[in-house]
Amino acid sequence: MVLCSTALTVYFASHSIGTVVVTTLACSLLLQLAYFASVLFLIRRSGCVSRAGQRAERFDSCKEVGSEPPDLDEVTNESPDLLQRDQMRAICGFMNRSLGSRRQH
What we know:
mainly alpha, 4 helices, about 0% strand
């Protein structure tokens, strides 16, 4: 629709078929570039939104598990599975504290 109206406008203004063809091709190229840029923008925005949602889910699960870091004595006497769990709790606690300080500002 846009290309047809552009072609008719250019033809009535210039009465040249060559100008109409060149202008129509240039207009179609601009439309394709705008479409491509808008698709890239939407893909990037959806990626940012999904990453933010994943972060929020991780922080919510950290609150459920607990956010207290383990004591050093407890860490040295525990099995590797428990050590990994406690490390995750410590990381979640750090992330919760850093998010809390951002929210307060």
